[in-house]
Amino acid sequence: MQKLVVLSGAGISAESGIKTFRDMGGLWEEYDIMEVASPQGWARNPELVQKFYNDRRKQLLECRPNRAHLGLVELEKYFDVEIITQNVDDLHERAGSKKVLHIHGELRKAQSTKYPELVYDIEGWEIKDDDRCEKGFQLRPHVVWFGEPVPAMEPAIEITARADIMVVIGTSLNVYPAASLIDFAPAGIPLYLIDPNEVIYSDTSRINVIKEKAGKGVEVLFGRLTGEKPTY
Ligand code: OAD
Q1: pLDDT at 82 over 90
Q2: What is the per-residue pLDDT for 205?
Q3: For ligand 1, atom 29, which residue shows the shortest CA distance?
Q4: Ligand 1 binding pocket mutation candidate from 144, 175, 211 (most atoms within 8 A of CB)
Q5: 1-17+65-104+150-232, superfamily in CATH?
Q6: How do residues 131-140 score in pLDDT, each as one tens digit?
Q7: pTM listed for this prediction
Q8: What is the 3-state secondary structure (H, E, C) of 185-198?
Q9: Which ligand 1 atom lies nearest to the CA of residue 27?
């Protein structure tokens, strides 16, 4: 089976009702990114940071995977699909995708402030002020903040380097190192980009752009890759 590598971003979850970050009305218009998504912000005001992610988590529990997530599951019948996602939501998993790598962490998990390798599933939606790891240190969201290392980049690069086809869905390609992943795809493989808006990328001549929202865009992709009509 050919390996189909997907790099997804906030846009794939937009039709599930989750706000993107940089679109008009996106989260970074409403919140100061450095206040809620950096170690410095956490040091200044941990309550604000916990509330920001607790609110996101609460909202996530009410959201459902959309047709884009479902389409990627269906493509597993034809391809060895591996998803590398910048998203911290769990909608790919809930849709049923088997191979999902989260490079920016997972909203429904908590990690120790002192020992980041100690990671826990969160029951419900809240990390409370007195929730601690087994060594007694405060728990924080298991999310990669600006300025922090991205340990999953190494496996993500390995996966991308073995791609036969690569698809980029719903990301502005603004955040590095995630945005650099495309550069690790083998030269000459088919590259697709699904986004209703224009995405700036240095080498657009290499890319087949499907200028649609994710749900419709994955349908178009499905048709092009399989030659069949989607039945999902
Ligand atoms: P952005 O908000 O930067 O980009 C979202 C992209 O989705 C844009 O290119 C939009 O045009 C597109 N989009 C909007 N609606 C869409 C739809 N219905 N279908 C498909 N595409 C749509 O989000 P990301 O690129 O994912 O990091 O952001 C990258 C990282 O920045 C995030 O992982 C997060 C953030 O700060 C962390 O939290 C560490």
Answers
A1: yes
A2: 77
A3: 175
A4: 175
A5: TPP-binding domain (3.40.50.1220)
A6: 999 999 999 9
A7: 0.97
A8: CCCCCCEEEECCCC
A9: 2
